[in-house]
Please model this.
Amino acid sequence: MGKQFTEDYQPKKRGKSARTKFLEALKKEGKSEDGFYQLCVKRAFDLEDNFAFKELLARLSPLAKAVAPTINFEFPKKAKPHIQAEAVMAGIAEGIIPPDLGAQFISSIKAMVDIEENTDLKERIEKLEALLNGES
Model:
């Protein structure tokens, strides 16, 4: 567990956030956050301002995030990773899996292998340390 914050152990000051700086600048100009929003809406209805309307629309009704399609193919769940990757490559070759999704799939298989290797290595090191310290 990490250190607890005390009077002597405090996070370093990072400065003001961009939002705080903008709000302070607005205040210095005699403006408010609400006034800024009102100006944005007013400019959005100005037919000569092509930018404001688009920006306001994007914030009020953002486009849905693109989602990859569901893909059904034979995937050997219990097979060794190289066999799984081979199945993905076959799916790409047959046109069942788009190449970009296939690459993500293979990267995921590799990540799982790396996690398994790291976990195994960590457990082996812990056992060796326990043996060296006379623990069972």
Summary: The CA atoms of residues 21 and 101 lie 42 Å apart. The first helix runs from residue 18 to 28.
